[in-house]
TrEMBL record:
Pathway this chain belongs to: One-carbon metabolism; tetrahydrofolate interconversion
Family statement drawn from the similarity comment of this UniProt entry: Belongs to the formate--tetrahydrofolate ligase family.
Coiled-coil residue windows: none
Reaction it catalyzes: (6S)-5,6,7,8-tetrahydrofolate + formate + ATP = (6R)-10-formyltetrahydrofolate + ADP + phosphate
Gene Ontology molecular function: formate-tetrahydrofolate ligase activity
Enzyme Commission number(s): 6.3.4.3
Residues bound to ATP: T60, P61, Y62, G63, E64, G65, K66, T67
InterPro entries attached to this UniProt entry: Formate_THF_ligase (IPR000559), Formate_THF_ligase_CS (IPR020628), P-loop_NTPase (IPR027417)
UniProt gene name: fhs
Protein name, per record: Formate--tetrahydrofolate ligase
Record key words, sorted: ATP-binding, Ligase, Nucleotide-binding, One-carbon metabolism
Length: 550
């Protein structure tokens, strides 16, 4: 059996200029980065094209294949004669070298060249990291230069694009009187940086600069906010991002065009690709397939409650990805029996799928199709049970085999999605923008997660008062919590209800334009697993061929 990277290397890719021409773009519209990738000029006018959102049930250690399904669906729509474009996120090096791997899809449903995508790509993440850390450097230089802005509490953190738990809390300015003022600091992963969120929520370069200027970096002795505009470095930071703001053009193994841009995580950020890429794709194609990170209670909720509001776009249909294995895992099956028939685990775990369906269909009022990724060990009876269950909820199921068959393996999914697109909908938001931040968090926790009680710890209560004092209650909320459960406890699988949901702290993101609620045991700088993926990679130093990258 060929590995993902071996399959990708065998693909008959077209020069990226040809892919651009398929979208109606000329050579003057693209800036090539080698033969197979390019930056393109954004196209942001209002479009009547159809937007299809791909989301998933809660992730498990086995993977559900959300990106693989997104790519397979786009390829299937192309095979059906539709003018289609993907709009996906870029991978972070942290997961690439950690446990999750890259973000190119898998099997015969990949975007390629996958090595380019997973390793540096066009440098967007490096630009975001540098822009973030330029602000940090300006802050510490201002402190060293007699602190003219009276910064007493620094809120801004450095970032890097790697899982490195040792950098969560550090002390800087040690060792010499020339090192500046000694203080506590820390790093977030680049995907959780506010600069990443800003890049993905900005509507153009001018909006990007304005959002950067509005970032709150510190509080002064009067507890008043100090902004990037007070540091007078918003132009310099924007300069570092002038190319990164342009979407990247890529292709699938079947030569379907794909815009890949931005990469915020959905468990610690808002989990969607850039507004600029999504709206550009909608201008270039009749059908656009995009995705939101992790489970629908995280990525899809933020897509609807944050991105749709800012971008003025609506998903015309939603694909909910799951697997038999995932359902049984949520029903208590262990790793030794996860691939074997287990009726009890299947019937118990299907509540997790049902929770996601009900949220999308009843809470958000969206057209939903379930994509069930099929594996060789799935039985006909198991698949039939999932079909029966979804039918009882008024939702169609498509069995997907595009991992092994490419777009042809997602033809049933494409047919069901096209049917749903004939039923116009507008999403129902979880909360009103006029709600205060506490109410917004409580509505998400109770309506979407099914929590029975929401508890705010002292630090969160203190920040609620700070948010009110700064008149920021009208901002949306971005929940940072575990992706493995509807709750804030990774061990509560299935569809838990009535649990206590704990908000530990809140962070103000005036540049991105939302409030981050940190819930449960979540970190904005992930760590590596005991055996990270980096230990299983190798490179042939004679040929440069990489092995173990996935």
């Amino acid at each position: 059996m060929l590995s993902d990277i071996q399959i990708a290397r065998q693909a008959n890719l077209k020069p990226i200029a040809e892919i651009a021409r398929d979208l109606g773009l000329s050579n003057d519209d693209i800036e090539q980065y080698g033969k197979y990738k390019a930056k393109i000029e954004p196209k942001l006018t209002k479009s009547n094209s159809k937007l299809i959102l791909v989301t998933a049930t809660n992730p498990t250690p086995y993977g559900e294949g959300k990106t693989t399904t997104s790519i397979g669906l786009a390829d299937a729509l192309k095979l059906a004669g539709k003018n289609v474009c993907l709009a996906l996120r870029e991978p972070s090096l942290g997961p690439v070298f950690g446990i999750k791997g890259g973000a190119a899809g898998g099997g015969y449903s990949q975007i390629a060249p996958m090595e380019d995508l997973n390793l540096h790509f066009t440098g967007d993440f490096h630009a975001i990291t540098s822009a973030n850390n330029l602000i940090s450097a300006i802050i510490d230089n201002s402190l060293y230069q007699d602190n003219p802005l009276d910064m007493q509490e620094i809120l801004w953190k450095r970032c890097m694009d790697m899982n490195d738990r040792a950098l969560r809390n550090i002390t800087i300015g040690q060792g010499s009187k020339f090192d500046g003022i000694e203080r506590k600091d820390g790093f977030n992963i680049t995907a959780a940086s506010e600069i990443m969120a800003i890049l993905c929520l900005a509507t153009d370069l001018s909006d990007l600069k304005q959002r950067i200027a509005n970032i709150t970096v510190a509080l002064n002795s009067k507890k008043e906010p100090v902004y990037v505009r007070d540091l007078k470095c918003e132009d310099a930071v924007t300069i570092l991002l002038k190319d990164a703001i342009k979407p990247n053009l890529f292709q699938t193994l079947q030569n379907t065009p794909c815009l890949v841009h931005g990469g915020p995580f959905a468990n610690i950020a808002h989990g969607c690709n850039s507004i600029i890429a999504t709206k550009t794709a909608l201008n270039l194609a009749d059908y656009v397939v995009t995705e939101a990170g992790f489970g629908s209670e995280l990525g899809a909720e933020k897509f609807i409650d944050i991105k749709c509001r800012v971008a003025d776009v609506n998903p015309d249909a939603v694909v909910l990805v799951s697997t038999i294995r995932s359902i049984k895992y949520n029903g208590g099956a262990d790793k030794d029996s996860i691939t074997k028939p287990n009726e009890q685990a299947l019937k118990s775990g299907i509540a997790n799928l049902g929770g996601h369906i009900r949220n999308l269909k009843e809470q958000f009022k969206l057209n939903v199709v379930v994509a069930l990724n099929k594996f060789s060990f799935d039985t006909d009876d198991e698949i039939a049970y999932v079909r029966w269950y979804c039918d009882s909820l008024g939702v169609k199921v498509a069995v997907c085999e595009n991992f092994a068959k490419g777009g042809a393996g997602a033809s049933e999914l494409a047919t069901h999605v096209l049917d749903e697109l004939n039923n116009p909908v507008k999403p129902n938001f979880t909360y009103e923008m006029s709600d205060d931040i506490k109410t917004k968090i409580e509505k998400i926790a109770t309506k979407i997660y099914a929590a029975g009680e929401v508890v705010f710890e002292d630090s969160a209560l203190k920040m609620l008062n700070e948010i009110k004092s700064q008149a920021l209650d009208t901002l949306p909320v971005c929940i940072a919590k575990t992706q493995y459960s509807f709750s804030d406890d990774a061990k509560l699988l299935g569809r838990p209800e009535g649990f206590k949901f704990v908000v530990k702290d809140l962070e103000i993101r005036t540049g991105a334009g939302f409030i981050v609620a940190i819930c449960g045991k979540i970190m904005l700088m992930p760590g590596l697993s005991p055996i990270p993926g980096a230990l299983n990679m190798s490179i042939d130093t004679q040929t440069g061929i990489i092995s173990g990258l996935a």
